[in-house]
Specification:
The chain contains one helix and 16 strands. By secondary structure, the chain is mostly beta strands.
C-alpha cells in the first residue's frame, strides 16, 4: 500500500514539473519578438522645399519613393518614385502646379567586380506637354563607404517649344550626371552631383547663360536621426538666371526629409 502511494506521489510530482516546464517554455516563446515580415517595397514620404536665389522663388516637392525588397520578385532592388512639384511664388503665398514625374530604375551587378549597370527612365508631364527621359548609368563601389555612378540621360520632349528664330521645334536635350556618394558614418553621408546639359538643336535653343550647354552642381547632406527619419539639405549652383536684361548667378537651397512609412 505504502509503495503504491509513494509511486503515485512520485508520478504526480514528475507530471507537475513537466507541466511547469512546458508552461515556462510556452511563455518564453510567446514573449519572443516576432520577426517583422519583409515588405514588398519600402515606402518613403519625401517632401522638399527649395529656394532659388536669383529668381527669388520657392518650390515644393511632394514625393513617395522606395525600393522593392521582395527576395522572390524579379523586381527586387528596383527603385521607384512618384512626385508632384509646385511653384510657391516669391512669398510662399501660392500653390501653382509645376510638373509631375514618375521614375523607375533597376541596378544589375556585373559579377563580383564592384561595377553595376543602372538602366531607368523618367516620365515627366506638365501643362506645356510631356517628356520621356530614358537613361543608362554605370556604377562602381570603391569600398563599402564610397560609390560613384556615371549616367547618361536623354530628355526627349514630346512637344515643340518656341525657338530663338520664333518658330517651333524639338527642344530635347542631353544630360550627363555624376553621383559621388560618401558615407562618413552609417548615419551621415554626402552626395556630390555635377550635371551637364546640352541642347540637341543648339542653334535654336539656349539656356539662361546664353549658351547651348550648361553645367550645374549640387551637394546633398543626409542624416539618419531615428530608425525612420532622414532629414537632408542641399546646396546647388544652377548657372545663370536671366532677369530682364540682367543675368545673375542662380543658387538653390533645399531642405527636406524622408520618412519610412513601413
Amino acid at each position: 500500500m505504502n509503495n503504491n502511494v509513494n509511486k503515485i506521489i512520485i508520478a504526480a510530482t514528475l507530471m507537475s514539473a513537466a507541466a511547469s516546464a512546458n508552461a515556462e517554455n510556452t511563455s518564453n516563446v510567446a514573449a519572443m519578438p516576432q520577426a517583422k515580415p519583409t515588405p514588398f517595397t519600402t515606402v518613403f514620404f519625401a517632401p522638399r522645399t527649395q529656394y532659388r536665389t536669383a529668381s527669388e522663388s520657392f518650390l515644393q516637392r511632394l514625393m513617395l519613393t522606395g525600393v522593392v525588397q521582395d527576395p522572390d520578385s524579379i523586381l527586387k532592388n528596383m527603385y521607384w518614385s512618384f512626385e508632384t512639384d509646385a511653384d510657391l511664388g516669391k512669398h510662399m503665398d501660392q500653390w501653382k502646379s509645376s510638373y509631375q514625374e514618375v521614375e523607375i530604375n533597376k541596378p544589375f551587378p556585373l559579377g563580383d567586380s564592384g561595377f553595376w549597370l543602372e538602366p531607368g527612365t523618367v516620365f515627366h508631364w506638365e501643362s506645356a506637354g510631356s517628356r520621356i527621359d530614358p537613361y543608362i548609368g554605370i556604377g562602381y563601389h570603391f569600398d563599402p563607404t564610397l560609390g560613384a555612378v556615371l549616367r547618361y540621360r536623354y530628355n526627349h520632349q514630346n512637344h515643340d517649344s518656341q525657338t530663338l528664330q520664333g518658330d517651333w521645334d524639338d527642344s530635347s536635350e542631353h544630360r550627363v550626371d555624376i553621383y559621388l556618394t560618401k558615407y562618413f558614418t552609417p548615419n551621415f553621408w554626402v552626395q556630390y552631383n555635377p550635371t551637364y546639359y546640352s541642347k540637341t538643336h543648339g542653334d535654336k535653343f539656349v539656356y539662361a547663360n546664353g549658351k547651348n550647354h550648361t553645367l550645374q552642381h549640387n551637394s546633398v547632406f543626409t542624416f539618419h536621426t531615428t530608425p525612420r527619419f532622414y532629414p537632408f539639405f542641399e546646396l546647388g549652383y544652377l548657372d545663370k538666371y536671366k532677369d530682364g536684361d540682367d543675368t545673375k548667378d542662380e543658387y538653390q537651397i533645399r531642405v527636406g526629409f524622408k520618412f519610412n512609412l513601413n
